[in-house]
Amino acid sequence: MGTYADEINRRRTFAIISHPDAGKTTLTEKFLLYGGAINLAGSVKGKATARHAVSDWMQIEKERGISVTSSVLQFSYDGFCINILDTPGHQDFSEDTYRTLMAADSAVMVIDASKGVEAQTRKLFKVCVMRHIPIFTFINKLDRDANDTFELLDDIEKELGIATCPVNWPIGSGKNFKGVYERESGCVITYADTEKGTKEGHATRIPLAETENLTAQIGEEFLSQLTEEIELLDGASAPFDLEQIQAGNLTPVFFGSALTNFGVEIFLQHFLKMTTTPLPRKADIGLIDPVEHDFSAFVFKIQANMNKAHRDRIAFMRVCSGRFDVNEEVRHVQGGRVMRLSQPQQIMADERKILSEAYAGDIIGVFDPGIFSIGDTVCMPGEQFSYEGIPTFAPEHFARVRQVDTMKRKQFVKGIMQIAQEGAIQIFQEFNTGMEEIIVGVVGVLQFDVLKYRLENEYNVEIKLENLPYEYIRWIENKDIDLDKLTGTSDMKKIKDLKDNPLLLFVNQWSIGMTMERNEGLILSEFGRS
Ligand code: G4P
C-alpha cells in the first residue's frame, strides 16, 4: 500500500444523473448540508444560475462558451471525502454531460416518483451501463402523489434493463405519505417534513413488530397494505447482492423526498457503505491501480473561455492514481512533454480554489494553453502510458454549415476545427468530398447557437446552418466492409469523420433496422473511438 492509501480510500466520486426537474439540484444541496463543511452559499448560487430563464442563461452561456453550469463539488461526511460531478441538465445537455460520467466511479439516478424513467435518464444510463459502474436509485418527491411503487420498479427494470433491489419501501405518498419501511432493520421510519435548510429531522423509528404503536402512527389501512407489500416484495425482488451492485447489474432503490429532506441522510449512509473507492482504470499497459501507482490523470473535458477577459481554456482531469503535487513535474503523454500543470484548481460552481495537492478520485481543472485534448493522459515524467480513450457519443442533431464570406475560409476551418477539438461539437464530411462540405453534429441543439456565436466572436466568421433531418448516427465497426456495396434506405446518408472513419446517418430507428437487415454482418456502434 502506498503512503496515500488512506486519503485515496476515503474518496468517493460519483455523478448524479436525472431528467431535468426530478430533483437533482435539491438532492445535491441536501447532501452538502449534511457535509456541513461546504461553502453552501457559493454552490447554491451556482446552481441557481442553471435555473434561470433560458434567455438569461443563454447570455451567460454565450459569454463564456459552453456548459458553465457543469461543476464539481467536494465535501466531507463521516470521514469520507466526497466528489459530486454535476451532469448539466436542461438545455445545456451536451457531450460534456456524457463525458462527465467517464470520470465517475458510480452514479446516483434521481427519478421523479410521479414520472418514472424519463428520456434524459435513459440516455445517461446507457453510458453508465457501458462503463459497468454501480448505479444507485433515489426515487424522489414522495411528498407528492406518486406512481404505484411496483410499477416504478417495473419501469426501471423494463426501460433500463437493470434489476432493482429496494432498500426501503414507501408507505403512501402525497398528502398520505407516512414514511418508509427499512428492509434491513425491519423498522418503519415515519415521515417528518423537516424545514427547508435544516438537517434536523423529527422522524421516528418504529419496528414493524410494534403493531399498536405503528397503527397509531400510520393507521391500520396503511399498515396492512405495507405488510402485504413487504410479503410481495420479499418474494419478487432480486436479493441484495453487493457484488452485483458493484458490477452495475443491480441497482439499490431508495425512496424519499429531497425537498423536505426525508430519506436523504439514510440514502447517503447506505450509498457510502455500498459504493466503491476510486476504481482502477484501463490503460495500454494494463489496469492502473489508484493506490499502488504514482500520480496519473486523464482529461475528460475542456472548457474554453470561462473567463472572457483572459480567453482561457481549462482542462478538467480526473486523478486516477496516486497523489498530485503542484510542485512536481508531470508528463503529458500525447503532447510528448514534461511540464508543470499550471494553476491547478478545484472548480466549484462559480468559484475556483487553487490546489496544491489532490488524490486519486479528485477532479482538478488546469490552465490549458491549447495543448490538451479530451482523453489525454498525464503521468509521472519517468512513465509513459495512455488511458483508454473516451468514446465519442452519438450526436442527435445535424446541420450543414457554410461560411457566409467565402474569403474567410482559413479562419472558418481553423475555428471549427478548434471548437471540435474541445469536444463541443463533432464535425463530419460528405463521403466523397473533403472539407468543402462540413456537417456538424451535436448532442444538444444549443451547441449550434454556441458554435455560431463563438465563430463570430472569436474567429470573426459568420456562418449559416442548414438543419438536416437526421437523428441517428452509427459508426461502422467492420474494417473490411465495401462501402460502395452497402445498401441502406433511401434516406440514409454516408459520411466520414475527420479520421476518415465511415459513418451512417439515419432519420429514424426503422432505417437502421432495415440497413442491418440488408447488409448481413454489418456491425454498427453508437459510440465512436476518440
Ligand atoms: P433538477 O436539478 O433535477 O432539475 O431539479 P431541482 O432540484 O431543481 O428540482 C425541480 C423542482 O422540483 C424544484 O421546484 C424543486 O423544489 C422541486 N423538488 C425537488 N425535490 C422535491 C421533492 O422531494 N418534493 C417536492 N414536492 N418537490 C421537489 P421549482 O418550483 O421548480 O423550483 P424552486 O422554486 O422550488 O427552486
Gyration radius over CA: 25 Å
Relative helix content: 25-40%
Bound molecules: guanosine-5',3'-tetraphosphate
Number of helices: 14
Major sheet description: 8 strands, antiparallel
Beta strand %: 25-35%
DSSP strand count: 33
Distance between the termini: 33 Å
Spatial shape? globular
Strand sequence of the main sheet, in spatial order? 28-25-27-26-30-31-29-32
State mean pLDDT (0 to 100 scale): 85
SS-based class = alpha+beta
Low-confidence stretches: 37-69
What does this structure look like?
This protein is α+β, with helices and mostly antiparallel strands. The strands form 8 sheets. It has an 8-stranded antiparallel beta sheet with strand order 28-25-27-26-30-31-29-32, covered by helices on one side. The protein has a 7-stranded mixed beta sheet with strand order 2-3-1-4-5-11-6, with helices on both faces. Helix 2 (24-35) runs antiparallel to helix 3 and helix 12 crosses helix 13 (446-459). The model is unreliable at 37-69 (pLDDT under 50).
Topology, pairings included?
Blueprint: H1 5-9, E1 11-18, H2 24-35, H3 40-51, H4 54-64, E2 72-77, E3 80-86, H5 95-100, E4 106-112, H6 119-131, E5 135-140, H7 149-160, E6 163-166, E7 168-171, E8 179-182, E9 187-190, E10 205-207, H8 211-218, H9 220-236, H10 242-246, E11 250-255, H11 264-274, E12 281-283, E13 286-288, E14 296-304, E15 313-321, E16 323-325, E17 330-332, E18 337-339, E19 345-348, E20 351-354, E21 357-359, E22 363-367, E23 377-379, E24 392-393, E25 397-403, H12 409-421, E26 426-430, E27 438-442, H13 446-459, E28 463-468, E29 472-476, E30 493-497, E31 502-506, H14 509-518, E32 524-525, E33 527-528
Parallel strand pairs: 1-3, 1-4, 4-5, 5-11, 6-11
Antiparallel strand pairs: 2-3, 7-8, 8-9, 9-10, 12-13, 14-15, 14-23, 15-22, 16-21, 17-18, 17-23, 19-20, 24-33, 25-27, 25-28, 26-27, 26-30, 29-31, 29-32, 30-31
Helix pairs in contact: 2-3, 8-9, 12-13
The structure holds guanosine-5',3'-tetraphosphate.
